[in-house]
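Sequence design from tokenized structure. All designs in this work follow the same two-part layout: the structure record, then the generated sequence. An example of the structure record is given first.
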């Protein structure tokens, strides 16, 4: 139940980030709901399709859609009267990335896949929705920018899987993975930490 609730929280915060991007891009209310849904379920849908998990998670459990509608609606009401707090988009995106990356990794792990597939599916779950959101709103996806994004997801998932292999309780392993991802993303936001640029020879 705890992990299910974390998954729903991840859906909610990604829906919030979708509405914030839609508002910044000048979309209407329908566009806000559409972008919220795309952000919240895009990565998990791609994961389920690739892992041949049917029915897809939000079709099997409609609570995900209700959470999206509620989170998006409340966010729209809030920003209609009050300005969004500073860095709210980056914080919501970081939290959604952390929760979804670990959730996706758990699903791949429970299906018996190898370490590499677990990392790939977790990273895809955490990042694909944000990529779709940014592409649909004509923004450069965060994953392709210089700061730590997919790298944070990979590191957090690796920590989670390694702790699981060492026999650490699942709750602690999940918490450690989430903290690593959040920490790296906030490090990138606050201090501008990033991977080195590629430099080609002239």
């Amino acid at each position: 139940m705890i992990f299910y609730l974390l998954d729903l929280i991840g859906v909610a915060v990604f829906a919030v980030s979708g509405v914030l991007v839609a508002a910044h891009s000048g979309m209407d209310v329908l566009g806000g709901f559409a972008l919220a849904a795309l952000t919240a379920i895009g990565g998990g849908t791609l994961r389920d399709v690739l892992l041949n998990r049917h029915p897809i998670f939000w079709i099997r459990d409609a609570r995900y859609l209700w959470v999206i509608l509620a989170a998006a609606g409340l966010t729209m009401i809030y920003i209609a009267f009050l300005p969004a707090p500073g860095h709210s988009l980056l914080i919501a995106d970081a939290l959604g990335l952390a929760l979804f990356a670990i959730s996706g990794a758990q699903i791949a792990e429970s299906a018996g896949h190898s370490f590499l597939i677990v990392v790939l599916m977790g990273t895809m779950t955490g990042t694909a929705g944000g990529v779709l959101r940014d592409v649909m709103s004509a923004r450069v996806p965060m994953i392709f920018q210089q700061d730590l994004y997919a790298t944070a997801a990979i590191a957090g998932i690796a920590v989670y899987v390694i702790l699981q292999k060492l026999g650490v309780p699942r709750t602690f392993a999940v918490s450690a993975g989430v903290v690593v991802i959040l920490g790296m993303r906030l490090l990138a936001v606050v201090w501008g930490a990033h991977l080195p640029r590629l430099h080609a020879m002239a």
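The chain has a mean pLDDT of 88. We note this feature because it recurs in several other targets discussed in the main text.
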